[in-house]
Design a protein that fits this description.
By secondary structure, the protein is an alpha+beta fold. Among the domains are: 87 residues; 151 residues, Reverse transcriptase/Diguanylate cyclase domain (Alpha-Beta Plaits, 2-Layer Sandwich), CATH 3.30.70; 152 residues, TIM Barrel, CATH 3.20.20.450. It has 23 helices and 23 strands. A hairpin with a 4-residue loop joins strand 1 and strand 2. Helix 10 runs antiparallel to helix 11. The longest helix has 68 residues. The protein is rod-shaped.
Length: 720
């Protein structure tokens, strides 16, 4: 049996995939949003550090600018008096050093000549600041790093809105670093150092070295921080976004702030922010999001499983129930449905409706099955039995013949098939109608059934044909006894509704003791023998022999040639004159059928008429002869032979045909002949076959004016 997967599991799997996809999408978006928030927080910290640096740097520089401006007014230094200005600054050296840590001071006159220097030489990059100060007439600040980094401020000394001198001061960055450190520590645990970057070294701790005064403990911590920065973290990354590192189990954000006095000096302020608590909160948030999504998926799956499991159970029960319908176990199907699907009305769902529909289907199938059983029995009866007589039909007989033939090899006996045909039965139908014909067939079946033994079988093949299967024959002569008894049963006439019918039978017999004989071949042989028996003109039987086949073939060929001859007008009428002996006067003609064959010439009537007598072709020839004979009679009358009669032979089939009288009347009217000149000849056999019917037809013919004559009287055909 092929393995199957439950529909509920398929639906559950699909829903699980959908929910997992949606949850993954939502969780991913939430995690992405949290990561963006984390990045934004880092950017906020970085921006805040830069802002504070510039704010404090500006504050310290403006403090010096204000002091210089105030010093000019306090000492009332006249314009252009550089010497007094220099003396003033010389007297303030100790104050500047102690108060604001001014380590270097330079005074430049309006000719941009150094007129006073306290401390180191004036660096070249500071000269550029001096030029800008003279040009822009405003303080210019920057950072100069050589061995150590110092903050430089170039302040213009303006008298009457003209720059007369420029004072340049350099201060240590320690105060700035202290202010920044105090400000950052107030917001979070942070450290700030001045570092210098070098291009050598394999690790970040080798590439960066601390360039500010720190404690030994702080220096070790900063070395650990620098060692935790991966080589892949470039200066640009540290400047623009910062980088997170883990040191001693805590998370830190590292950012660099370049001191842009000289682009190539490689000095930076390194901010170290402790973000461990924030990272833990971020991880906790991510865990909540992740496990919340997983919990949501599991909750949904559980709910769907509980819901679909009930549907799956119902579908499984229904799937197991449906084969019961194919097995026609309808009651068991209804019982299982009632046990599995009965629920309260307000709880009904589509599967309950499906169960009810299945019950309705079972009721209809049960009804159809019962009706089919009845119809099958009827069809079997129709297929195997004749509806008119109740006897077995051709199918049943064929089946029994095959069965008996198969048993012949186990028996030392033979079997015979008797093919029986009612003689002149067509006349009964034509003259009295099919109702009387059916009654004759039923009576014939009853008479035949009285003769046969219980183990023999009689069947009606249709029309007036019956077949009897006789088995267990020790010798073929036993069939003669059966055939004689059958013929004897029809000696007595049949009486139906005050009508008397003289019916005889013709029997063809086929005998075999060979089990290899085929049923169809045996029936064909019996049928052929029956037609041979009919040539005896009733109440006779014939055994099949091989010569009959040749005769049948010849008869079929002759019938086909006769049809062609009728179409090609090979037939013609020979007129045999009738002379009155006393006066030797011509009184009429007898129309005789002749055949002028294109190859064989004139074919004698005795060669083709007996063979065509019991065929359908004979009826066509009979009416053709009548038509041509009356046409000749009309032509004779037109030529002056008005009192000459025309004798026309009637066959038994034509005499019994109900179309005879209407056709005769039509020909008389068409050719305008005198009916008294038409003489219809029939044999005595035709008259005695059904005397009452014969008398009735003769009276109707005579009423038309036609004459009746008995043909072949005294020549061996008449009964004397």
């Amino acid at each position: 049996m092929q393995k199957t997967v439950s529909l509920s599991y398929k639906v559950l799997a699909i829903m699980l995939l959908v929910v997992m996809f949606v949850c993954s999408l939502v969780v991913g978006l939430l995690l992405y949003q949290a990561a963006n928030q984390e990045q934004q927080l880092n950017q906020t910290i970085l921006s805040r550090d830069v802002t504070r640096y510039h704010q404090f740097s500006t504050l310290l520089n403006e403090r010096l600018s204000v002091w210089v401006e105030g010093l000019k007014y306090i000492n009332d230094i006249p314009p252009g008096n550089t010497t007094e200005l220099v003396d003033t600054f010389r007297r303030a050296e100790d104050f500047l050093l102690l108060q604001w840590d001014v380590s270097n001071l330079w005074v430049i006159d309006n000719q941009q000549q150094l007129v006073y220097q306290q401390g180191e030489y004036l660096p070249d990059d500071v000269l550029a600041m001096v030029e800008r100060t003279f040009a822009e007439a405003r303080p210019i600040a920057g950072v100069h790093c050589h061995v150590m980094c110092e903050q430089i401020v170039s302040i213009p000394v303006m008298i009457n809105r003209q720059t007369t001198n420029v004072v340049v001061m350099s201060t240590s960055l320690q105060e700035l670093l202290a202010l920044l450190s105090e400000a950052t520590q107030g917001a979070s645990q942070s450290d700030l150092v001045l570092v210098k970057h070098s291009k050598g070294g394999n690790s970040q701790s080798d590439r960066y070295f601390i360039n500010s005064m720190v404690s030994e403990k702080q220096e070790r911590f900063m070395r650990d921080i620098l060692g935790a920065i991966p080589p892949s973290a470039s200066k640009t990354t540290l400047i623009t976004n910062g980088h997170e590192v883990n040191v001693n189990g805590r998370a830190y954000l590292i950012t660099l702030l370049p001191l842009y006095q000289h682009k190539s000096n490689g000095h930076y302020l390194m901010f170290t922010h402790d973000i461990h608590e924030r990272k833990q909160a971020y991880k906790s948030q991510n865990r909540i999001i992740f496990f919340g999504g997983v919990g949501l998926v599991l909750t949904f799956v559980l709910c769907m499983f509980v819901l679909l499991r009930r549907y799956a159970q119902k579908l499984s029960v229904l799937a197991n129930m449906l084969p019961l319908l194919a097995q026609k176990r309808f009651e068991e199907f209804k019982l299982q449905q009632k046990r599995s699907f009965t629920r309260k009305k307000w709880l009904l769902d589509e599967l309950d409706t499906l169960g009810e529909a299945a019950v309705e289907l079972s009721d209809k199938l049960e009804s159809l099955d019962q009706q089919m059983t009845v119809n099958t029995a009827k069809l079997e009866k129709m297929a195997m039995f004749d509806s008119l007589t109740g006897l077995p039909n051709r199918n049943m007989m064929t089946f029994q013949i095959n069965k008996q033939l198969a048993a012949l090899h186990r028996q030392q006996a033979g079997m015979a098939l008797l093919f029986i045909d009612l003689d002149n039965f067509k006349k009964v139908n034509d003259s009295h109608g099919h109702h009387f014909g059916d009654e004759v067939v039923k009576l014939a079946g009853e008479r035949l059934s009285r003769v046969i033994r219980e183990n023999d079988l009689i069947a009606r093949f249709g029309g007036d044909e019956f077949v009897i299967l006789v088995t267990g024959l020790d010798k073929v002569e036993q069939v003669n006894i059966v055939a004689d008894k059958l013929i004897e049963e029809f000696v007595e006439p049949m009486r139906i509704s005050e009508q008397t019918f003289y019916i005889s039978i013709s029997i063809g017999v086929a005998y075999t003791s060979n089990s290899k004989t085929r049923a169809l071949e045996l029936m064909r042989q019996a049928d052929t023998a029956m037609y041979e028996a009919k040539l005896e003109r009733g109440s006779s039987f014939r055994f099949f022999n091989s010569s009959m086949n040749q005769k049948i073939v010849k008869q079929v060929e002759l019938e086909n040639e006769a049809r062609i001859a009728l179409k090609e007008q090979q037939f013609f009428l020979a007129l045999q004159p009738q002379i009155e002996l006393a006066s030797k006067r011509l009184t009429g003609f007898e129309a005789l059928l002749r055949w002028n064959h294109p190859q064989r010439g004139l074919v004698p009537p005795g060669d083709f008429l007996p063979m065509l007598e019991n065929t359908a072709m004979m009826s066509e020839l009979d009416f053709w002869v009548m038509e041509k004979a009356i046409e000749l009679l009309s032509r004779l009358a037109s030529n002056g032979y008005r009192n000459v009669k025309m004798a026309i032979n009637l066959s038994a089939a034509q005499f019994a045909n109900s179309a005879l009288l209407p056709y005769l009347m039509e020909l008389i009217e068409l050719h305008k002949v005198d009916a008294r000149n038409i003489e219809l000849e029939l044999t005595e056999t035709v008259l005695v076959a059904d005397i009452e019917r014969a008398v009735e037809v003769i009276q109707q013919i005579r009423a038309l004016g036609c004459k009746i004559a008995v043909d072949d009287f005294g020549t061996g055909y008449s009964s004397l």
